[in-house]
Amino acid sequence: MHPVIVLQLLALLVLANGTPVVAKKILGNRLSYPLDGNVRFLDGRPLFGRSKTIRGVVLGVTGGDGRRSADRARTGSRGFGRQPRDLLGDLS
Predict the structure, then answer these.
(1) CA 62 to the chain's CA centroid
(2) For 32-50, how does the pLDDT look when each residue is reduced to its tens digit (9 = 90+)?
């Protein structure tokens, strides 16, 4: 594998996994309201899970811009619609 590609992938992993930690430190509990509005599924669990928050969606959309730009440059793909698919994927 080419070293440049390895460094790019490493940078994307650090960005993707580090953003929520840094945001929690900076924002505290602001924007940490559950995305599902505390709605419970039939089994009593949160509809989208405990970790799906307004802050997460905002960070996913804004932080994901760098990843989408890298995807577009590499594949020519737009990459739109990932956030809803990711959210709905957690229902299974």
Answers:
(1) 9
(2) 899 899 999 899 999 888 8
